[in-house]
């Protein structure tokens, strides 16, 4: 459906984007120094730092370097089946998520254990040109989507008018304030009427134990449709990063037409 007249192109977003902006590296010299000091030998068959570090962390518990399971996949499978989940906290990724709504991030930040967040500020950033996320249900029907876009059009205009009026009021009543603070005061008041659908961007750092828990809860058919779509994209990105840590996780096509994320070893 085309954007309503006078609206910038690309105002509406239908799918989240996941950027893997940070992953770990192994400091091989230090690993070799440790192994030499302890008189041990360790080799592994994976090149993914997340997987190497998780295996080193786990093997440190029993000083089992060079013993037992041979492949990294087998080693991590044992970690998963025995629910030795703290080992998975040593694998960490930073994801930059865009094209997600404020409604979604309100749910996302409820995940506290093992996550760090930095999110776009609606106090500092002018939301006049903000984009809006169309809930998946509204994407199914031209009529619903039309009503949604009409409502957003009203709210967007109201935000601009209210922000301008607030800025004029602050300038008149608090002329001594630096201009930056004046704009901030106006925006922080005007944002009260921005809808949950307003797009936001959030930088999330999480360890693999936490990401697995997120995938389990938010990739489920019981989760909100938008965050479920995000969980599917996060799963694809993390599975590429570490097939072994996420070896028991897969996508399943559901009767409602959307995939869900299924995890064999729940809440490791
Ligand atoms: C389908 C669905 C519907 C929901 N509906 C609602 C709702 O209506 N209202 C609402 O408020 N929330 C709702 N939530 C949010 C939910 O209650 C959790 O806050 C959210 O999913 C975060 O998960 P978590 O509690 O496992 O926390 P995480 O931070 O992801 O923690 C992971 C695990 O660490 C442990 N942990 C974390 N923090 C603590 C702690 N302080 N003390 C002890 N153990 C801890 C727990 O074992 C926890 O499961 C919903 C979630 C889902 C998936």
Average pLDDT for all residues: 95
Number of domains: 2
**Topology, number of strands:** 8
Beta-strand percentage?
15-25%
The ordered H/E elements are: EEHHHEHEEHHHEHHEE
Tally of alpha and pi helices = 9
Helix content: 40-55%
Question: Strands of the largest sheet, in order across it?
Answer: 2-3-6-4
Give a list of the ligands. flavin-adenine dinucleotide
Distance between the termini: 44 Å
Oligomer: single chain
- CATH structural class of the largest domain: Alpha Beta
Instruction: Classify the secondary structure makeup into a structural class.
Output: alpha+beta
Question: Judging by the overall fold, what is the CATH architecture of the largest domain?
Answer: 2-Layer Sandwich
Secondary structure blueprint with pairings:
Elements: E1 12-13, E2 17-22, H1 28-38, H2 49-62, H3 72-81, E3 92-101, H4 102-108, E4 115-119, E5 132-133, H5 136-139, H6 142-173, H7 179-190, E6 199-207, H8 208-218, H9 225-241, E7 249-253, E8 259-263
Parallel strand pairs: 1-5
Antiparallel strand pairs: 2-3, 3-6, 4-6, 7-8
The structure holds flavin-adenine dinucleotide (FAD).
The site of flavin-adenine dinucleotide has 8 residues, from helix 8.
